[in-house]
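Wed. Picked up where I left off yesterday with UvrABC system protein C. The coffee machine is broken again, so keeping this brief.
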Amino acid sequence: MITQAMIENFPSSPGVYLMKNAEGTIIYVGKARNLKKRVRSYAGDTRDSRVHIRFMVQLVRSVDYLVTDTEKEALILENTLIKQHRPKYNINLRDDKTYFSLRMDMKEEFPRLSIVRKIPSDGARYFGPYASATSAKEVLKQLYKMFPLRHYPIATCMARKRPCLYHQIKQCSAPCCGLISAEEYAALAQGAALFLEGKNTEVARLYRAKMNQASEQMRYEDAARYRDLLRAIEVTVERQKMVAQSGDSDVFGVHREADRMQIALLHIRGGTLTGGRSFLFDWELETEEGLASFLNEYYDLDAPIPPQVLIPVPIAEPSALEELLSEKAGKKVTIAVPQRGPKLEMVKLAGKNAETAAKERLARESSSATLLTELAEKLNLPCPPRRIECYDISNIQGEMAVGSRVVFIDGRADKSLYRRYRIKGVLQSDDFAMMREVLSRRFKAESTEDKPDLIVVDGGLGQLGVLNAVLDELEVTGVEAAGLAKSRVARDMESEEIERSDERVFRPGRKNAIALRQSSAPLLLLVRIRDEAHRFAVTYHKEVRSKVLTGSELDGVPGIGEKRKKALLKHFGSLKRVKEATLEELKSAPGMTETAARALVERLHGSPLPLGRE
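Structure written out below (tokens, as returned):
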């Protein structure tokens, strides 16, 4: 428990405080404009009265602090320490989702739109974000119908002798063949940029003026093209739902249920809702502090930062976070709590999205709990298996053998916990020995991973016996095991019908398979897990096989990495010419040294060097 004596010497300056338990482990990292005042709020009779906050404070045995010069520095330090220590009671945002944007460099002769992941400061214009590459491609697909910009890099376009297929279907204006002037193409590119920014009125005004000008100059074909563009834009705009007056913003909504906090995010770009996300956290402190901590972590993951961030509740010291986000974005960023008007309606909409996501999560958890309870009953497990792991082996007659592990938490795949294994100790075709190696590496003594409640292996009693033997050898306790044997095809030579046997589930101590109804939810879950492990193993095996089969004789040469290998092939033109090159020629190649050149000659021709080749 935090006492007044602990914080007696705390300064009244900005900084970060670290709460530790009896073992000295950091369980919470927080920031404050006034360290002494903030930590005092957790101590004595003035501490927060909510049960879950009191529970965390009861675990605290000491509090350390680090002083910073400014609140912004405290924000940065807090984020760094959270990533370093992963405290139990902090929001640990590990977001592997990548946003996509559309890029257009207006300085190019004929600007082109392309899909990118990162947004560097290179002077180009970026539009988005889009939640996936698929959604970004769909936007491009619709955009090309209105603005026929080039599809390929400029070098590829200019190398063509005639227009490509996109020109034939009126989705490219063929600047490569001089079928459009640079001025007219620039107008198309500008129109596409304005359209992506949601400035549809300005786009319409621009092209209406172009149409009238072309008509007055009796360039009727150009006027007709602008007329068609205007019609396409008007039809597309009618389909879009405007949700804000104007501008770009991220809108956050929060739904709180005890120690669970659901956050919904809506992306507003050009006054139009372009997408959204949902996040769920275990959080035991104030909602305002949780939201502030989330914003700091979320925008530290290279997420696109709009000029306005709308939130439902005020956070402490928003000016420090505004300063930090403005510095990252390279433009002024404001954080606001709307009180009325369309912006408040958007925040309420985000709140409804958070509440809906929370209800859907509860429904899924309830359904998952029922399914896992039924699975435990059918397989005679001591408790519902929240964490299920499945292993599979893939090889071709023992060659290029690999193993895979997939993990399902509460009946759903958790791909962040998937693992791939390259078999090292088994050189012949022996699936049992390979499985033993994979399982032994999984449960090695120094492993700090959580143990699974249930392990499923692809196979029958043989593979299950290997699993049990490894668990016994490594003295792994509290882990249940099951083997899932695939259905087999059986066909009577005198019959035209093909019969398929049932999927069979085996458990230790039972000679016969456990009878599960073939369409039952527990069996379908096991089959889905087994098939996912098989897919993951086969995918990795194909990757390994591709690398082996397409490997170059330059691979593995001391001093010859990927960059030098590419430079050599580019300089000489082919592997054959690299082999024919003398030592002096290799030494003079870009990026090469005499040591690397000698090692390469010895690898290609054997040692010592051939006479007359120096």
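Quick read: Residues 341-379 form the longest helix (39 residues).
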